[in-house]
């Protein structure tokens, strides 16, 4: 009996050892491409010509930089709120579709458009909604003039471009939660005299609340950290924090690597807060559904 227990313990130890060996490449990758760059970023943010100091962080709170943070936060809030609202509506419409072929096609489309961003997305919006874009010229031919009242190269145009990938991302995030809503809950509520509004206010939204809030954090972080679309579409004309960091690194006004790293560290804490909120609320949503 003792020998059997000892053999079992030895087997478990071997399995644990194999598991750690299998995880070793992932650990090396994480250390090389995540831990070391973050440490280097933080140390560089404290480095100045006079040595180690808080000078870069002091410069990070100048009015121009604070305006960049404010614009980025406002842009992220608007696109996150609109993305959550519109994505929830579209996601519910997809779940409610009885045609499996249509449902699968819409989910596949949302999955593809979620990953369509960066310079190609900016170019697509320039071609369609730019000053000489296809839609702009079509509207102009029927007497509707977008410009100069609207500019795709502005922060409002950037918000429209961000919604292109924010809404599909929300759809992919909310679909599992919507699938967890049982049809029996709806039928029970209706049989007890509730209408659609009462069902959503007292049953649907409370159940989906943690999933909606966790999705909001992800969409906020996704918008706040976006760079390629903003830089390609607007260049340095729009004062948001990712564009400011790029300008400082490129040296378009003045090459200030330390200040750029300080701004990146502050942005990193904002992103970490969003990721922490997402992990907390998503775990709460899983426990609630279980």
Structural class estimated from helices and strands:
mainly alpha
Oligomer: single chain
The CATH topology of the largest domain comes to MetI-like fold
Discrete helix count: 12
Q: Averaging pLDDT over every residue, what do you get?
A: 85
Distance between the termini: 39 Å
Structural features, described:
The protein is mostly helical and 290 residues long. The two termini are 39 Å apart. It has 12 helices and 2 strands, in the order H-E-E-H-H-H-H-H-H-H-H-H-H-H. It folds into 2 domains: 45 residues; 236 residues, MetI-like fold. The mean pLDDT is 85.
Write a concise keyword list for the protein shown above.
290 residues, mainly alpha, MetI-like fold, two-stranded antiparallel sheet, 2 strands, 1% strand
Q: What's this model, at a glance?
A:
Helices cover 80% and strands 1% of the residues.
Compile the SSE list and pairings.
Elements lengths: L1 H44 L1 E2 L2 E2 L2 H5 L3 H34 L3 H15 L3 H12 L4 H8 L13 H25 L3 H9 L4 H29 L3 H7 L6 H10 L6 H33 L1
Antiparallel strand pairs: 1-2
Helix pairs in contact: 1-12, 3-7, 3-9, 4-7, 5-10, 7-9, 7-10, 9-12, 11-12
């Amino acid at each position: 009996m003792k020998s059997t227990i000892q053999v079992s313990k030895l087997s478990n130890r071997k399995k644990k050892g194999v598991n750690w060996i299998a995880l070793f490449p992932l650990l090396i990758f994480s250390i090389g491409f995540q831990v070391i760059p973050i440490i280097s970023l933080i140390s560089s943010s404290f480095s100045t010509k006079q040595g180690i100091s808080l000078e870069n962080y002091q410069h990070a709170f100048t009015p121009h930089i604070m305006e960049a943070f404010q614009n980025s936060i406002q842009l992220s809030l608007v696109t996150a709120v609109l993305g959550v609202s519109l994505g929830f509506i579209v996601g519910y419409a997809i779940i409610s579709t009885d045609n499996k072929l249509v449902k699968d096609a819409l989910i596949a489309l949302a999955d593809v458009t979620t990953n369509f961003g960066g310079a190609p997305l900016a170019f697509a919006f320039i071609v369609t909604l730019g000053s000489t874009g296809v839609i702009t010229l079509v509207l102009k031919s029927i007497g509707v003039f977008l410009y100069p009242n609207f500019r795709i190269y502005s922060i409002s145009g950037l918000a429209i471009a961000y919604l292109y990938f924010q809404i599909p991302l929300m759809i992919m995030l909310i679909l599992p939660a919507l699938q967890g809503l049982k049809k029996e809950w709806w039928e029970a509520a209706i049989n007890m005299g509730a209408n659609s509004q009462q069902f959503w206010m007292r049953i649907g939204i409370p159940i989906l609340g943690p999933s909606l809030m966790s999705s909001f954090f992800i969409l906020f972080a996704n918008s706040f950290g976006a760079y390629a679309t903003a830089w390609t579409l607007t260049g340095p004309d729009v004062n948001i924090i990712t564009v400011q960091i790029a300008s400082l690194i490129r040296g378009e006004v003045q090459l200030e690597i330390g200040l750029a790293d300080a701004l990146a560290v502050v942005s990193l804490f904002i992103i970490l807060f969003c990721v922490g909120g997402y992990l907390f609320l998503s775990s709460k949503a899983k426990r609630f559904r279980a």
